[in-house]
Specification:
Layout: E1 11-21, E2 24-36, E3 50-52, E4 57-62, H1 73-83, E5 87-92, H2 101-104, H3 107-115, H4 123-132, H5 134-156, E6 168-174, H6 176-187, H7 189-194, E7 195-201, H8 211-222, H9 224-241, H10 244-255, H11 260-270, H12 273-289, H13 296-303, E8 308-313, H14 322-333, E9 340-345, H15 356-371
Parallel strand pairs: 4-5, 4-6, 6-7, 7-8, 8-9
Antiparallel strand pairs: 1-2, 2-3, 2-5
């Protein structure tokens, strides 16, 4: 038997894999500490030379729409590296969001389901609703969380100690991922009890941008039967006719995507028409369905059990504007909600993940909230 004392110092390893969840092949990542003979090979945690360190706290990361975990993986690895042994992270992409037909759905599935979108009766339409609706994405994330917990039990829970505690959880999310995380916790009281902390990065949990943007986006969202084919075809026409190198230069110099990896992922997404459609259909439903006013009931109910830390960014942010932070602080001052902390960083933008200079401040915020919590949790 190999003891921990006989093993080299643990190092962080990232494993990316594709797994079918609720009928959809889904991109997942796992970040763990490993005791390994070869510290540079983290492709498989099941090899004889690998010994995964048991995590006591697991971070569960849900990205924002367009829901690609690949955009965030490097940042998430750095967070676990700086948290140390005892922490692990699991991350998930959205159903139907990625590159490749197996991930985004076939052309026939798209054609059949989009035409009959209002019916949602047959098996194909039911499958596409997982990708195209908030309810479908929420159920998809619920199944994933259940699988993460079952994975931990299978790997670490000793049959000789049936009462051994499950790991504590920290929900970390960006943009619309915060809405999904919030509703997951509200719908699963046992999961909320297991959760130690919630961290939202620029949360898109209500739709109330400045009036002009609100009017334009609302009109687009309510006429999606016409706007989605138009927008999707436009993106596809440009991406299929222009040289990839030219689009890369445009994304870098005009759009301002400074991250080489981020631009590559963006290019892969933009050149896949069914991914663009999935992104737009879900995005327009978010605009139609998210509330305009803050959900103080959700914040109050969650706050009774665990703390929530929220990061807001500078620059005009139509998804998580500064007015949302001001409203939360107003609710706190009136004692309507508690156990919620808001932090404002003017140097950040909503799409921080594709700007290398913004990564470290976000990592610093996450680490500070986890290592030096300012709020109370019954799990500490």
């Amino acid at each position: 038997m190999v003891t921990e004392e006989a093993l080299p110092a643990p190092k962080v390893g990232l494993v990316s894999h594709l797994k079918t969840i609720n009928g959809w092949p889904t991109n997942l990542i796992s970040i763990d500490y490993f005791y390994k003979g070869d510290a540079d090979d983290f492709e498989s945690s099941s090899s004889p030379s690998s010994y995964k360190c048991k995590p006591n706290i697991i971070l569960l990361f849900i990205p924002g729409n367009p829901g690609l975990i690949e955009w965030y993986s490097d940042t998430l690895v750095k967070i676990i590296e700086q948290l140390g042994v005892g922490y692990a992270l699991r991350g998930i992409s959205y159903a139907g969001h990625g590159a490749g037909d197996s991930v985004t759905g076939s052309a026939d599935e798209h054609k059949q389901s989009f035409v009959n979108a209002s019916e949602q009766q047959d098996a194909v339409s039911a499958k596409m609703s997982v990708s195209w609706t908030i309810e479908g994405q929420l159920k998809h994330k619920m199944s994933w969380v259940d699988e993460v917990i079952e994975e931990w039990k299978a790997e670490f829970k000793s049959s000789a100690q049936p009462t051994e505690d499950l790991p504590r959880l920290i929900f970390l999310s960006h943009s619309f991922g915060a809405y999904l995380a919030q509703h997951l916790l509200l719908s699963r009281p046992a999961l909320l009890q297991q959760t130690q902390q919630i961290i939202y990065l620029m949360p898109f949990i209500r739709f109330d941008p400045p009036p002009l943007q609100k009017l334009m986006l609302t009109k687009l969202a309510h006429s999606y039967e016409y706007t989605i084919p138009m927008l999707g075809n436009s993106v596809w026409a440009l991406s299929s006719t222009l040289p990839r190198k030219l689009i890369d230069i445009y994304l870098s110099k005009v759009v301002g995507l400074d991250c080489d990896k981020g631009r590559k992922i963006t290019l892969d997404v933009c050149t896949h028409p069914r991914m663009v459609r999935n992104h737009l259909i879900l995005g327009f439903e978010e605009i139609r369905e998210l509330p305009e006013l803050p959900n103080d009931v959700a914040l109050r109910l969650i706050g009774k059990t665990c703390p929530t830390s929220i990061l807001f960014c500078g620059c005009p942010d139509q998804w998580a504007p500064l007015s949302h932070m001001e409203k939360i602080n107003e609710l706190k001052s009136k004692a309507i909600i508690s156990n919620v902390q808001c932090v404002y960083m003017e140097e950040l933008t909503h799409d921080f993940v594709v700007h290398p200079e913004m990564i470290e401040p976000v990592i610093g915020f996450c680490l500070d909230q986890i290592k030096h919590p300012k709020l109370l949790s019954s799990k500490l």
